[in-house]
Automatic annotation (TrEMBL):
InterPro entries recorded: DUF455, Ferritin-like_SF, UCP012318
Protein name per Swiss-Prot or TrEMBL: Ferritin-like domain-containing protein
One Pfam family from the record: DUF455
Record organism: Aliiroseovarius pelagivivens
Bias kind Basic and acidic residues: ranges: 65-80
Renumbered residue ranges of the record's region Disordered: 54-85
Length: 290
C-alpha cells in the first residue's frame, strides 16, 4: 500500500483539468499533502516498487483548464498602467497571480507528461513541493488583490503563458531548460523591483507575500538546475552546451539583463549558462517573451 488515493500522475492530471483558480490550488495543496504524508510515513521508498501505483501514467491535456475570466489577450493589447498608481499596482499583482496559476499547472504538467522517463523519487518530491508553493503563491496574491477590492479575473491576462509548455511537450530536458532555468530565473531578476514598488505604496501585506514568493522561487530554479544536470549526466551531455542549444531551440523570448547573479548562483545557475544567450538575443528574438 502506497498510502496514496491514486498514482501521482493522475493527481497531476486532476489538477490540470480543474478550471477555477482557488479550486485548482486547493486540490494541488491537498494532493501535495497526501504525497508528503505518504513519503514521510515511509510508504513510498522507490519509484520502482510499484511504478504503476506510485507514479502511474496520465494523458495530460494540451492546455490546462482555466477559469472563464480572465480574458486572455496578446500582451500588446493588455493596457499598461503606471506602477505608482493604485490601478497600476492592481494590474501588476493581477499579472503575478496569472503567472503563479500558470506555474501550478507547469509543475504538475512535468510530473504528468514525462512518466516514460524513469526518474528518482526526489524528482517528484521537488516538483510536488514546487507545485504546492505555487498554489500558495496564487492564493497569497489573490488575497492581496481582494484586499484592494479586485480579484483574479478582473483584468485581462497574457495569452502566451502556456507556450513554453507546448514547445517542450516532448522534451523533458527542453522543459527544464526553458521553464525553471529561464522563466522562473527571470522571476528572480524582477521580483526585487516589484517589492520596492509595493514598499513605496505602503502595501505591507503585499510586500510580505512577494518576499515569500521571492525566497521560494530560488528553490524552483534550483530544482530545475539539479534535474537538468542529472539528466545530462545520464546521457553524457555537456550541461552548458546542452542548455544553450535547448534554449535556442525552444525559447522564443529574450534573455534580458540585468540578471540577479546572486540569487541565480544560489539556485545553481552559473553566469556562463545565461550570459552567452543574452549577448546573442537580437538575432534570436522572434516573438514575445513567454
Ligand atoms: Fe511562484
Ligand atoms: Fe516557481
Amino acid at each position: 500500500m502506497t498510502g496514496l488515493s491514486k498514482p501521482l500522475a493522475q493527481m497531476a492530471d486532476d489538477v490540470l483539468r480543474t478550471a477555477d483558480g482557488r479550486e485548482k490550488t486547493a486540490l494541488a495543496r491537498r494532493y501535495a499533502a497526501e504525497w508528503v504524508a505518504a513519503r514521510d510515513a515511509g510508504r513510498i521508498t522507490s519509484p520502482l516498487q510499484d511504478r504503476s501505483a506510485v507514479i502511474g501514467q496520465a494523458t495530460p491535456p494540451d492546455f490546462p483548464a482555466r477559469p472563464e475570466k480572465p480574458e486572455l489577450k496578446n500582451p500588446r493589447d493588455v493596457p499598461r498602467r503606471r506602477p505608482g498608481s493604485r490601478p497600476g499596482q492592481i494590474a501588476l499583482l493581477h499579472a503575478v497571480a496569472h503567472i503563479e496559476l500558470n506555474a501550478v499547472d507547469l509543475h504538475w504538467d512535468i510530473i504528468a507528461r514525462f512518466t516514460d522517463t524513469p526518474m528518482p523519487l526526489g524528482f517528484y518530491d521537488d516538483w510536488v513541493k514546487a507545485a504546492d508553493e505555487e498554489a500558495k503563491h496564487f492564493n497569497l496574491v489573490s488575497d492581496c488583490l481582494e484586499a484592494l477590492d479586485s480579484h483574479y479575473g478582473a483584468l485581462a491576462a497574457h495569452a502566451g503563458m502556456w507556450r513554453a509548455a507546448e514547445d517542450t511537450a516532448s522534451d523533458i530536458l527542453g522543459r527544464l531548460a526553458v521553464v525553471p532555468m529561464v522563466l522562473e530565473a527571470r522571476g528572480l531578476d524582477v521580483t526585487p523591483g516589484m517589492i520596492d514598488i509595493f514598499k513605496k505604496a505602503g502595501l505591507t501585506d503585499t510586500v510580505a507575500a512577494l518576499e515569500v514568493i521571492y525566497a521560494e522561487e530560488v528553490g524552483h530554479v534550483a530544482y530545475g538546475s539539479k534535474w537538468f544536470h542529472f539528466l545530462c549526466g545520464r546521457h553524457e551531455l555537456d550541461p552548458k552546451d546542452t542548455f544553450h542549444a535547448l534554449v535556442r531551440q525552444y525559447f522564443h523570448g529574450a534573455l534580458k539583463p540585468p540578471f540577479n547573479e546572486e540569487k541565480r548562483a544560489e539556485a545553481g545557475l552559473p553566469p556562463d549558462f545565461y550570459w552567452p544567450l543574452a549577448d546573442e538575443t537580437p538575432d534570436r528574438q522572434r516573438g514575445t517573451p513567454g
